[in-house]
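Notebook p. 47: complex prediction with iron/sulfur cluster.
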Amino acid sequence: MESSRQLSNEEQATAVAGGSSAASGAHVARTASEPMSLIDEVFARSGVNVRLCYQCGKCSAGCPMVGEMAVRPHMVMHLVQRNYREEALSSDGIWLCLTCETCSARCPKGADPARVFDTLREMAQETNPRLAPRAIGAFNRTFLDQIRSSGRMSEVGLAMQFNLRSGRLLQDATSMPALVSRGKLKVKTPPMRDVDEVRRIFANVEAVQRTYGQGDER
Ligand code: SF4
Ligand code: SF4
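Predicted complex, structure tokens below:
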């Protein structure tokens, strides 16, 4: 029973990594060329020991976003265990995660997948923000731009900027005018009163990122 489950998970990680023998060879090459394995780096950053994960799948079974994910939470954990760095950092599972922490609450081994995914997102942002799937990266940047500029989210502005950045130019083109005319969406959202406080927070974060050589690629 245990061995068939192991085999299944092995196959899943291999499939995500893009093929059996090629993926296996790439794994060996990556391990040899990197000073620290992915599992050790995640541990160093988060204090979470992904080796504890025994692939029971309870995290995926309880995840509210699992239906949208090609790479489900337990599969991401397996990618980390197998040192598939780029596949883990670019997996849609970590970028669609809502940080609701249901998976961590359900995990019988205390492997804390939510903290692991948070750590993986941080690592991707530091090394290559383009690893995020285009639509998700576009949404994150658009959302942050809106908060930086007005302290609030404008639904119409968010939708239009997101469509431009994600290349989905005609998405919502037919539904948005009707929603605006019925008052369901506001065209103008006034900035919040203390928006300068918000801008100061952004400036401080950007100063820290410059100090440590990180940054949001646009
Ligand atoms: S619930 Fe925990 S042990 Fe089970 S697959 Fe998910 S992370 Fe691994
Ligand atoms: S924290 Fe993320 S991965 Fe975990 S259950 Fe919630 S949405 Fe799913």
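Notes: The pocket of iron/sulfur cluster (ligand 1) is lined by residues 53-59, 74, 77, 106-107, 109, 111, 113 (CB under 6 Å). Residues 134-150 form the longest helix (17 residues).
Next step: compare against the earlier run before touching the bench.
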